[in-house]
């Protein structure tokens, strides 16, 4: 059985590809590889979240949690150049690609590091956290990500989550309602829900 994209070192042969993609009327170039999530195009959920995202009205860094090869973090960084953006992923191959993609797209205000969720972030707090959680890792992992995100937000910070209805959006919304005082569905497209929680 091949390793999943949410493992540290996917045990699949490399087959790198570079392709172009438009997000919010900006052209991006992404290099991807086997063993990373959605290697052929930016997945619809991430695209929808990028298009819906508006930074909060507080100062502070933005986190792309489970960044993959970097499309969310890079797009957010390019559109919000006054913010420091950080991306984390457990998958080393994805993190290397994300840093390469940041360079080739001229996103100087974003950095990507290998970290299992918040493990290597030393208690850093964020104005916003965006995540397209690894549903295939299981509900327990996804709910842990939501819980840890709530603890890692600055006062007034926001958690943005994209989840498909058939992959657990109602369960995620219930969990968000337990953790946050205000949860809003800011966008709904093709079965994908974009939640903003604060």
From TrEMBL:
Q: Which residues form the Methyltransferase small domain?
A: 28-196
Q: What is this protein called?
A: Class I SAM-dependent methyltransferase
Q: Which SUPFAM superfamilies match?
A: S-adenosyl-L-methionine-dependent methyltransferases (SSF53335)
Q: Name one GO molecular function term.
A: S-adenosylmethionine-dependent methyltransferase activity
Keyword Iron-sulfur among UniProt keywords? no
Give the organism's phylogenetic lineage. Answer: Bacteria, Bacillati, Bacillota, Bacilli, Bacillales
Show the Pfam families listed in the entry: MTS (PF05175)
Organism encoding this protein: Gracilibacillus oryzae
Keyword annotations for this protein, in alphabetical order, are: Methyltransferase, Transferase
Q: Which GO terms describe its biological process?
A: methylation
Q: Which Gene3D superfamilies match?
A: Vaccinia Virus protein VP39
């Amino acid at each position: 059985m091949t390793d999943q994209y949410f493992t540290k070192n996917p045990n699949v042969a490399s087959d790198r590809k570079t392709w172009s993609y438009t997000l919010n009327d900006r052209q991006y170039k992404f290099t991807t590889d086997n063993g990373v999530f959605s290697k052929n195009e930016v997945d619809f959920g991430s695209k929808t979240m990028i298009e819906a995202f508006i930074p909060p009205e507080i100062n502070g860094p933005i986190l792309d949690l489970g960044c993959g090869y970097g499309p969310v973090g890079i797009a957010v960084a390019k559109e919000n150049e006054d913010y420091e953006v950080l991306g984390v992923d457990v998958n080393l191959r994805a993190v290397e690609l994300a840093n390469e993609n940041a360079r080739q797209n001229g996103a100087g205000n974003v950095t990507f590091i290998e970290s299992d969720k918040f493990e290597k972030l030393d208690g850093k707090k964020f104005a916003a956290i965006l995540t397209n959680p690894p549903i295939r890792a299981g509900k327990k992992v996804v709910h842990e990500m939501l819980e840890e995100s709530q603890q890692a937000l600055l006062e007034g910070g926001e958690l943005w989550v994209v989840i498909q209805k058939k992959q657990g959006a109602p369960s995620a919304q219930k969990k968000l309602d337990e953790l946050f005082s205000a949860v809003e569905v800011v966008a709904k497209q093709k079965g994908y829900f974009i939640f903003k929680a604060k």
